[in-house]
Inverse folding.
């Protein structure tokens, strides 16, 4: 049973996981312990009545741009990347359901044997029923990243917030692993991020969010309760708005 409390600042969010985040400490593939941890963190916010859609990348298996650098046709390579996101989505679905959540996987490309097609009204209805909807295959088009897919789907389902779940605790002025003097932003504007080319999401994703007034929080998902604190309105990570 899902309980709904009005003290949640955000009632419907879109959560963006990178494919690389699913690797844990591995060099490739999917780490089950990491999947389980993500599932438990998502369950905490769903149990409070927050509606959650998830967009997932495929970089732990195959990145479209990777194939291009090796001489592969860009469109063909990107479609392969989309299929990688489907594999990750099914793995995440298994972990979420083992945590006791109801889920649906919806794909931007037709793979009816394993997931539903993305239909906006159906997706929203699933969310209203307390189901976690995992959105795979990006936008269904080559030349677009899963960051762009996250921004697009967030706009389509009227999400109030995008949470980009990463291994770092926010947006920095420079790479904190390379520059010890890099400073973390608590809040930053879309214009500043775009002008200074801060590596958070790609420019298409940022522009979509800016045009549709969808704020983004970049946070470290590995810290327990960070997702819950964000939907409650606490200042965690970096807010881009």
């Amino acid at each position: 049973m899902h309980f709904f409390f009005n003290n949640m600042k955000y009632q419907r969010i879109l959560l963006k996981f990178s494919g690389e985040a699913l690797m844990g400490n591995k060099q490739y593939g999917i780490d089950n312990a990491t999947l389980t941890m993500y599932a438990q963190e998502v369950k905490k916010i769903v149990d409070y009545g927050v509606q959650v859609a998830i967009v997932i990348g495929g970089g732990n298996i195959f990145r479209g741009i990777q194939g291009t650098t090796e001489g592969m046709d860009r469109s063909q390579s990107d479609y392969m990347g989309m299929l990688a996101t489907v594999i990750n989505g099914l793995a995440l679905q298994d972990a979420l359901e083992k945590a006791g959540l109801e889920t649906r996987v919806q794909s931007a490309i037709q793979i009816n044997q394993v997931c539903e097609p993305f239909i906006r009204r159906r997706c929203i209805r699933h969310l209203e029923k307390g189901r976690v909807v995992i959105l795979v295959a990006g936008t269904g088009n080559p030349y677009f990243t899963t960051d762009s897919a996250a921004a697009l789907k967030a706009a389509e389902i009227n999400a109030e917030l995008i949470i980009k779940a990463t291994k770092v605790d926010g947006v920095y002025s420079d790479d904190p692993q390379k520059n010890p003097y890099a400073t973390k932003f608590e809040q930053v504007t879309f214009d500043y991020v775009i002008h200074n080319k801060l590596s958070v999401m790609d420019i298409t994703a940022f522009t979509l969010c800016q045009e549709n007034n969808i704020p983004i929080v970049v946070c470290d998902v590995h810290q327990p309760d960070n997702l819950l604190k964000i939907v409650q309105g606490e200042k965690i990570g970096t807010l881009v708005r």
